Amino acid sequence: MVSITEGIIHLVTAGIGALGFSLIFNVRKELLPAAAFGGFLDWGVYMMAEWFFGGGVFLPSVVAAAFASLYAEAMARVEKTPATVFYIPALIPLIPGGSLYYTMSYAVMGQWDLVQSYGASTAYCALGIAVGMSLVLSVEYTFHKLTAQKR
């Protein structure tokens, strides 16, 4: 369980990380606050989902990635810009970089029991991100297809 202080630090660093990647990807200056705020919010959703579901990485990743997709699509319409500008920074805090690093490190050292543990965590997280994004994009696509047919 994360303390309040640690939670605030996690949220702030997630926002800073999203801002950093927004700068790397040359997001327009007027869109930087919204892109960074997406990473901040998305990590908050992840932490709440982790608490709600009692740990694990798959379901919190699904929920957070779905939220990131909704946020990106909403901000794209508000700012009249492609959703990718908001998708990538919002998803950056979810990327399982630490567990991927440890998976590869333990593989090099030949500690296969730890490779299996960290590798499974990495795979579940990546799969959760893919499922969460796919769910929202599929629903959105279906909705647009149905509304286009009624015209």
Taken together, the total number of domains comes to: 1
Number of helices, counting only DSSP H or I runs of 4 residues or more: 6
| Helix content class | over 70%
Rg value: 17 Å
Q: How many E-type strands?
A: 0
> Mind summarizing the main beta sheet?
none
Mean pLDDT: 94
Uncertain runs are none
Distance between the termini: 51 Å
Index terms:
single chain; about 150 residues
Q: In words, what does this structure look like?
A:
- The structure is a single chain.
- The protein has 151 residues and is an all-alpha fold.
- The chain has helices at 4-24, 32-53, 58-79, 84-91, 97-109, 112-149.
- The chain has one domain.
- Helix content is 82%, strand content 0%.
- Helix 3 packs antiparallel against helix 4 (84-91).
- The longest helix has 38 residues, at 112-149.
- It starts with a helix and ends with a helix.
Strand and helix map with partners:
Layout: H1 4-24, H2 32-53, H3 58-79, H4 84-91, H5 97-109, H6 112-149
Helix pairs in contact: 1-2, 1-4, 2-3, 2-4, 3-4, 3-6, 5-6
Summarize this entry quickly.
The protein has 151 residues and is an all-alpha fold. The protein has one domain.
